[in-house]
Amino acid sequence: MTYHGLAPGPRLLVLGAVHGNEVCGARAITQLIEELDSGALAIERGMLTLVPVTNPLAYQRKQRMGDRNLNRNMAPSAIPQDFEDRIANVLCPLLDSHDALLDLHSFHTGGLPFVMIGPQNNQGELEPFSRAAEEMQLALHTGPHRIVEGWLDAYAQGVQRRAAAPTQREAAVPRRW
């Protein structure tokens, strides 16, 4: 669902239920859609796109993922191999057409909301980024008690560790010298 303000402004994409068993984002987005549709809230400028259920297969199954974890590998695929590849083929162009992303996740236990923000402005190989100031401003407007910075660096280190480690199949094959 996309809403446009009368004045130009930033384009925000809000995703819920990327993981199907994390339903708080889907509920919050559904409530926001109801408030926008009723006129209780209005978009003054820019564009807001809301996707309450990003991964419908995982959501229907009430589990973290459908065929695989969409959050760990999201890129367009010329030959989709699974359900999440097909989602990525729709989602990646949508991401490209927006200035900012708010990706809502939740825990299975209680706790205060927090925001994880991405890298500082960079031209890096993993995730080039040039909107750190806008991202921080959006994070502050959501009203969290905690903002976690640098999650992308931790993710990059994990990717490097997994790439350096042999796969299960490789580890099962005895080495002959």
Low-confidence stretches: 172-177
Any idea what the radius of gyration is? Answer: 19 Å
Helix count, per DSSP? 6
Provide the CATH architecture: 3-Layer(aba) Sandwich
Q: Strand arrangement, largest sheet?
A: 1-3-2-4
Main sheet specs? 4 strands, mixed
Task: Give the class from helix and strand content and strand pairing.
Answer: alpha/beta
- Distance separating the two termini: 59 Å
- Kindly report the average pLDDT value: 85
Outline the structure in words.
- There is one protein chain.
- The protein is of the alpha/beta class and 177 residues long.
- The protein has one domain: 3-Layer(aba) Sandwich (Aminopeptidase), CATH 3.40.630.10.
- Helices cover 36% and strands 18% of the residues.
- It has helices at residues 24-38, 56-61, 83-96, 132-141, 151-164, 168-172, and strands spanning 2-4, 7-15, 45-51, 100-103, 114-117, 146-149.
- The protein has a four-stranded mixed beta sheet, with helices on one face. Strands 5-6 form a two-stranded parallel ribbon.
- Strand 2 (7-15), helix 1 (24-38) and strand 3 (45-51) form a beta-alpha-beta unit.
- The protein is globular and about 55 Å long.
- The chain starts with a strand and ends in a 5-residue tail after the last helix.
- Residues 172-177 have low confidence and may be disordered.
